Automatic annotation (TrEMBL):
PANTHER family: HIGH-AFFINITY BRANCHED-CHAIN AMINO ACID TRANSPORT PROTEIN BRAE, HIGH-AFFINITY BRANCHED-CHAIN AMINO ACID TRANSPORT SYSTEM PERMEASE. The chain crosses the membrane at residues 7-24, 30-50, 57-77, 83-105, 112-128, 162-180, 210-235, 247-272, 284-309. This is Branched-chain amino acid ABC transporter permease. Its main location: membrane. It comes from Peribacillus cavernae.
Length: 338
């Protein structure tokens, strides 16, 4: 039974469910919510790669998400570029800015890094809010186009956009999986466990930290560009710290430093939030205590709790297997002595 809760099995099951979800429900609203969940998952995977596997908590993630969204919006609405060219450029612009910010931010460590990135995220929000000639300020950008056709494939319907975002999400999961299970992923984990020890064995920590930071911002920009093309309207609020803490909540609930955590945490929180909409602002009175208890008792989230349960189950099972063998040895000794 413990094998059922392996992360690979969980991810496979959720992917299969996602593929058939549009056929289970014909409600376009649910399809809309699920597509948004996939977009948030992409951003959470980027945050997880940096915070969960490298140990550096970035609080500027919403800022990079907004850069990706606004880059796509400005390039398509104002510069009138082709959608897919603007989409690629939006991800590259976000990554380039992430590279420049990372060169400075990664010279700090632990809570200093978190505070620095929090300030950077707020500065990005202020730039978007105040630079009205470029971003339209509080009015926001209106009329962002949906993804343009690729040959005979059209992305004008909600169903086609759903599968487009799902395919991109699966590519992101595959990339993260390959990174985590490679030598590079082990290097990131070594930095997380002890950066000083990683340096003593010859690991270039600055180079690896900068690489994972840029990759994390790339995923954030990718999610932002998808969000802009899906919602078709963006305002400065998408770069607020509230979005960063939403992404962090999805990650903490699902499981920090786990592969299936971003999927489970995002789906759970998004759908519970939808069911509690009638409470409006009072929803945090429920989420706050629950999240606090979860962090205290299960710091690695739901997936981490299942993983711990699985290890305990396997240990108990192995001990139970050893008991008959020990009794058999004792009985043989008694026969020989007799």
């Amino acid at each position: 039974m413990a094998a059922i809760f392996k992360q690979r099995n969980i991810i496979t099951g959720l992917v299969l469910l996602s593929l058939v979800f549009p056929f289970i429900t014909q409600n376009e609203y649910y399809l809309h919510i699920m597509t948004l969940s996939f977009i948030w998952m992409i951003g959470v995977y980027g945050l997880n790669l940096l915070a969960g596997y490298t140990g550096y908590l970035s609080l500027a993630h919403a800022g990079f998400f907004a850069i990706g969204a606004y880059s796509l919006g400005i390039l398509t609405v104002k510069a009138q570029l082709n959608f897919w060219l603007a989409f690629i450029l939006a991800c590259l612009i976000t990554s380039f800015l992430g590279f420049l910010i990372g060169l400075i931010a990664l010279r700090t460590k632990e809570h200093f890094f978190a505070i620095y990135t929090l300030c950077v995220g707020y500065i990005i929000y202020l730039v978007i809010d105040k630079w009205e000639s470029l971003t339209e300020g509080v009015r926001g950008l209106i009329g962002i186009p949906a993804p343009s056709n690729i040959g005979p494939i059209s992305f004008q319907t909600a169903l086609s956009q759903y599968y487009l975002v799902l395919v991109i999400l699966l590519l992101v999961i595959l990339i993260v999986y390959r990174i985590v299970h490679s030598l590079t992923g082990r290097t990131y984990i070594a930095i997380r466990n002890s950066e000083d020890l990683a340096q003593t064995i010859g690991i270039s920590t600055m180079k690896n930290k900068l690489t994972v930071f840029v990759l994390s911002t790339f995923f954030a920009g990718l999610a932002g560009a998808l969000y802009a093309s899906f919602v078709r309207f963006i305002g400065p609020d998408i770069g607020s710290t509230a979005i960063t803490f939403d992404l962090l909540t999805y990650l903490l609930v699902g499981g920090l430093g786990t592969l299936s955590g971003p999927i489970i945490g995002t789906i759970l929180i998004v759908w519970v939030s939808q069911q509690l909409q009638f409470l409006q602002d009072y929803r945090m009175l429920i989420f706050g205590p629950v999240l606090t208890l979860l962090i205290i008792f299960y710091p690695r989230g739901i997936v981490g709790a299942f993983t711990g349960w699985k290890h305990k189950y396997e240990d108990k099972r192995s001990k139970n297997k050893d008991i008959p063998n020990d009794s058999l040895v004792k009985s043989k000794k008694q026969v020989k002595e007799g």
